Structure formats: C-alpha cells, structure tokens
Amino acid sequence: MADESPAENTAAQAAPQIQMRVLGQFIRDLSFENVMAQKGVSGDVQPEIAVQVNLDAKKRPTEHQYEVSVKLNLKSKAKGLEDILFLCELDYCGLFHIEGVAEDQLHPFLMIESPRMLFPFLRRIVSDITRDGGYPPVNLDNIDFVALYRNELMRRQAETQKTDA
C-alpha cells in the first residue's frame, strides 16, 4: 500500500469536492391562458412559439442553501397571423445545497448548473399543460444556460458603460 506524496495530499486539500444536492423543487406560479378557446376560434392552426427565459438565484437563511428560479414565458401566435393562441407563464424553483464552490464561481454555478438540473421538469410541465390546453405538446428545445449567462453579463456591462458615459 503506497502512501500519498505530500504534493498529492496538498493538491487534494486545495481542491475541495463540489457537492450539489437538490433539496426540493416546486412551481411558484403557473398561468396558462388559452386565448383562442376564449374567442371561440376553432380549426387547424400552425403555432409559432416565442420563449423567454429569466433566471434568479438567492441565498437562503440556512448555510450552503440556495433557491434558484427559472421563469419561462411562452407566447404562441398562429403562423402568418397576429392572433394569439395561448400564453403560458411558469415560475419553477429549486432548492439546492451547494458546497465546495469557490465564492467567485458561485454565481455562474447557480445560474448555469442549477437551471440545467431543473430543465427536464420544466420541459415536462410545459408539454403537459399545452397538451391539456388542446394544443400539440410543446417540447422545449434545450436551453444553453452558459450562453444565456454570458449574454446577461454582456447586457449588464453595456448598461454600465451607458450610465458611465
């Protein structure tokens, strides 16, 4: 049985193991407005769907616990028309226990890895509610949370530069 060298032992101590556990998930708010059905319109329509995603994260009172919220807004219009078919708003939250992430890496970790864990559940909820609303199920494409995070950083930097000028 070989002993670890002092360099290996120091490297193991310097790089703490990242721990992430999902403590819970829940729907904070859900709204599905079937505009087409309310107007009494029927017939086959080709939906065009616009999706907006917003993320939020906050520290909880308990040490190493965070709440991450993914807010989806879907707006569907009939292809070639301005008629709105349906509106769907979903605020889905996850409670996470996270340890071993460096302080300067915590924000990107929360805004990228946590939503990535929640996304399959969001996709299922959106699919079920649109199907139950009388439309073909909407199967959301994967969301690139890294690109979303980078775009938000660039947007904030641009705003800061405008206010500084």
From TrEMBL:
Subcellular locations according to the entry: Cytoplasm
Q: Which InterPro entries match?
A: SecB, SecB-like_sf
- Where it mainly occurs, coarsely classed, is cytoplasm
Which GO BP terms apply?
A: protein folding; protein tetramerization; protein transport
A molecular function (GO) held by this record is: unfolded protein binding
What SUPFAM superfamilies does the record point to?
SecB-like (SSF54611)
* GO (cellular component) term, any one: cytoplasm
Q: Which UniProt keywords apply?
A: Chaperone, Cytoplasm, Protein transport, Translocation, Transport
Tell me, what's a Pfam family for it?
SecB
Instruction: List the NCBIfam families.
Output: PRK05751.1-3, secB
State the similarity comment. Belongs to the SecB family.
Q: Quaternary structure per UniProt?
A: Homotetramer, a dimer of dimers. One homotetramer interacts with 1 SecA dimer.
What does the UniProt function comment say about this protein? One of the proteins required for the normal export of preproteins out of the cell cytoplasm. It is a molecular chaperone that binds to a subset of precursor proteins, maintaining them in a translocation-competent state. It also specifically binds to its receptor SecA.
Q: What is this protein called?
A: Protein-export protein SecB
